[in-house]
Amino acid sequence: MRLIQITDCHLLADPQGASRKGLPLRQLRAVLERVRALGPDALLVTGDVAQDETSAAYRHASRAFASVGCPWFWIPGNHDQPELMEECHPFHEKLDLGRWQVLLLNSRISGQPGGELGQEQLQRLALQLEADDRPALIAVHHPPLDIGSVWMDAIGLKDRDALWQTLSPYPQVKALICGHIHQAFAAWQDVVAVYGCPSTSDQFLPKSHEFTIDEAARPGLRVLELRGEKLSTWVERVDL
């Protein structure tokens, strides 16, 4: 089973609209061309699909994601408008990928850059894990641990401790993937691997004290291979 993660597209209503360092829709299409070549079984978009929270931006996105030719799923990020997203494509809380389950969390807080899951969602997560002991991959927009960038660590997941306490009784949780950070990242929280993904738009400079664009880094994606109970993953970058 091959799952591909992309994230932080930051599309605009204007298809020719520019980001700080590029054209988001053009860059997304280039990344998706590589995604198609990799032959995914499913595509997962981990938030910040739109920059301007417009219906037009989500229509651009949904058409682009559908062009990959496999089932695709998304979760909202802090820049997103969930109601407009759902008008284009439904949300899912759980994906059934054969021997694996993928649990999709919503960490968006309206009007705030940081994220939070909340007690109700964490309780629902525990019930899902209690009912299904298949290997589990968790997806959320905001990173649930510090990544070493001062400004980004200030706007991560606020209730990260509660998340890890919720996950601790469930050894089937193998990994967690996130968006938000616009860079490749890998770390461990106890026995759970945590992976970040490059943006399809602008990249952020790792280990930066203040907000800084990484002008040398290219857009990218993360491939996750789910074989038996083993997960292997890598990042691919895309030339423009």
What do these coordinates show?
- Keywords: Hydrolase, Iron, Metal-binding.
- This is Phosphodiesterase.
- InterPro entries: Calcineurin-like_PHP, CNP_phosphodiesterase-III, GpdQ/CpdA-like, Metallo-depent_PP-like.
- It comes from Salinicola corii.
- The chain is built from six helices and eleven strands.
- By secondary structure, the protein is α/β, with parallel strands linked by helices.
- It has a single domain (2-237), classed as Purple Acid Phosphatase, chain A, domain 2, CATH 3.60.21.10.
- The chain has a six-stranded mixed sheet with strand order 4-5-6-7-9-8, covered by helices on one side. Strands 3-2-1-10-11 form a five-stranded mixed sheet, with no helix packed on it.
- Helix 2 (55-66) links the parallel strand 2 (42-45) and strand 3 (72-74).
- Helix 1 (24-38) runs parallel beside helix 2 (55-66) and helix 2 (55-66) packs across helix 3 (82-88).
- The radius of gyration is 16 Å and the shape is globular.
- The two termini are 28 Å apart.
